Each structure stands twice: as C-alpha cells, then as structure tokens.
From TrEMBL:
<dbReference type="InterPro" id="IPR003507">
    <property type="entry name" value="S66_fam"/>
</dbReference>
<keyword id="KW-0645">Protease</keyword>
<dbReference type="InterPro" id="IPR040921">
    <property type="entry name" value="Peptidase_S66C"/>
</dbReference>
<keyword id="KW-0121">Carboxypeptidase</keyword>
<feature type="domain" description="LD-carboxypeptidase C-terminal">
    <location>
        <begin position="209"/>
        <end position="330"/>
    </location>
</feature>
<dbReference type="InterPro" id="IPR029062">
    <property type="entry name" value="Class_I_gatase-like"/>
</dbReference>
<dbReference type="Pfam" id="PF02016">
    <property type="entry name" value="Peptidase_S66"/>
</dbReference>
<protein>
    <submittedName>
        <fullName>LD-carboxypeptidase</fullName>
    </submittedName>
</protein>
<feature type="domain" description="LD-carboxypeptidase N-terminal">
    <location>
        <begin position="17"/>
        <end position="136"/>
    </location>
</feature>
<dbReference type="InterPro" id="IPR027478">
    <property type="entry name" value="LdcA_N"/>
</dbReference>
<dbReference type="GO" id="GO:0004180">
    <property type="term" value="F:carboxypeptidase activity"/>
</dbReference>
<dbReference type="InterPro" id="IPR027461">
    <property type="entry name" value="Carboxypeptidase_A_C_sf"/>
</dbReference>
<dbReference type="Pfam" id="PF17676">
    <property type="entry name" value="Peptidase_S66C"/>
</dbReference>
<keyword id="KW-0378">Hydrolase</keyword>
<dbReference type="InterPro" id="IPR040449">
    <property type="entry name" value="Peptidase_S66_N"/>
</dbReference>
<comment type="similarity">
    <text>Belongs to the peptidase S66 family.</text>
</comment>
Amino acid sequence: MTPQFIRPAALKSGDKVAALSLSSGFVTEVMHRYEAGKRQIESAFGWQIVPAPNALRGEEYLYRNPQARADDLHWALENPEIAGLLSVIGGDDSVRLLPYLNLELICAHPKVFMGFSDASIILMQFLRAGVHAFYGPALLTDLAENGGIHPDVARGVSQAAIAAVPFTVQPNSTWTEQRQAWLPELQETPRQFASSEGWTWLQGERPAEGHLIGGCLEVLDMLNGTSGWPEPELWYGAILAFETSEDVPPPAQVGYWLRNFAVQGILQNAAGLVWARPRGYTPQMVQDLYGWIKKVLWEAGREDLPVLANVEFGHTSPQLTLPLGARAKLDPVAGTFSVLESAVS
C-alpha cells in the first residue's frame, strides 16, 4: 500500500520561518552570512527568518546539548506564529537528537521543514510521522549564495514549498562545487559556475511511479539500525533519492552501502532511483560510481529499475528541492522526472 502523507501549508510571503541549528552551532562563526541569507530569503520569497531560542547559542553549547536542539524543533512546531522550518547548516550528529524527538508533535503540527545532508535524520522523522518533508538548501548554503540566490534554487524552492501544484523537475543549466571562503568581504563575490552536461540515465526502459524518499548516504548510514530508521512500508514502492557529501566516499564504499539496502529488500521493492551529482568526484570516480550502482542493482535482480543520475539535489550548487513523500514519475523514454502531486496545501 502506498504511504499517505499530510501536506503542510504552503509557505507564502510574510510568513515567519524558524531557523533551526539541529546539526551544528557553526552559524555563530559566520553571522555575516546568516544575515545575508536572511536578507536574500526575504527578497526572494518574502519570508521573515526567526531564530529558534537555541539556534544562535554557539557550536560548543549545541554540541553538548542535543536536547536543546530537539527542543527548538518542538518549539517551532508548536509556535502558531511560525509557518515553516529551515535548517541553518548541516553537520554530523543530528542522529543524537533521536531520543528527544516527539513524532506526535510533527504529525499534530505539520509544517514545511527544509534541509539536506545531516538534516536527512530529521527529514526521515517527518516521513515516519506521516508528514511531507523537503530535501533542499539550508540557510547558510544556497540560500546565502554569494551575490544572491541562484534562479534555479529559487525556482526549486518555489515549486516544492510554495506553489501547490505538480511540476516537472528541470535540469540546471549551470553548476559549481567551488569552495569559496565564507568571509564578509567575499559575500557579494559570485562563485564561478560552469555549463552543466545534464542528467544521465543509467538504465531502465519503462516509466515508473512512486513516492520520493532518501537523503545523504553517509547520514543514512548513521541512521541505519536505529529507532529512527524508516519502517519497511515507507520504502516499499518508492523512488529512492540518494546523494553523497563533501566527504567524497569512494565508489566502492557507496556500493557497500547499496548492498545493505539490497539485503533489507529496499532495492528489490523500489520503483526507481534518482542519484545526485556527486561532489568532489573525478570523471573516473563518477564512472566507477555508476558501475557500482549498476553492479549492485544486478545483484539485487533489478536491471529493470529506472535510474536517473547527475541530478542537482545534493552537495553541489545550484541545489534543487525534492518534496519527500510526494508521488513522482521517472520516464526514461521521455527523459523526464516529474512530481505528480503537490506536497503542500
């Protein structure tokens, strides 16, 4: 049976959106970028960014107090003045919030929550609570982009979290993984973007439909085996969306993680697979990665599974926004990736 998810209210101009430091308190080291992100978000979407009570208390405090981070999430959910939730930045220990999270509050107060990377932990808890979640840019990343939010980022956020209609996911025309120091004097200096070579279909000959679920593989590996791991029914019939981080895991390691998904039966019961453009990979590593993906799918008896790769929803920029839980369609014949239903109301 296809899982059913609650649609949170679409975000609109004038809404107050909570800034949540659920992974790291690093934001206090780059407050100029935080302020730039706030300005750019208000300019692009009309949202007013409101820091959660503990969001700006610093890296050391938030590291030592995971419950304070969970409290911020609960505060934002229960606060009637807050319309949406936005991850400030990723990290590596959101998994420590699991003992303190209240999924009943997520279900009782469904709101747009958007983030990526380490936010995969929290996004999965929204899905487990039966609420759509949004795999998209964080406040300090593409929403505080040097020189302004990229049009492709603004389009992706608007399609997923503002416009309550289905949409076709469009490839970005440019991309970058350039590292530029987050210094005040460089905030208005744009990064260099190169022309994109587009998406790649690794396999598949027939269209497939399913709800979107996934995240950052390194983070999902931390979640695997815990109480926060999605139940089997959440994986069944899904279009999986996986990406890797700036840690640049070797292609073989990615293959080992995929084998775990195969042993769990997740690959065997999937409808499709969307793979993000991998950050930091050489052309040879990309080819090795694609080889591992196809190898493990063969091992799982899924040579039929449609696989779309090099999609811009991970750790490269501009970043698209995927509405997790929403029903989507991969069509290798038409070469399209469509979201068939709105994830907001």
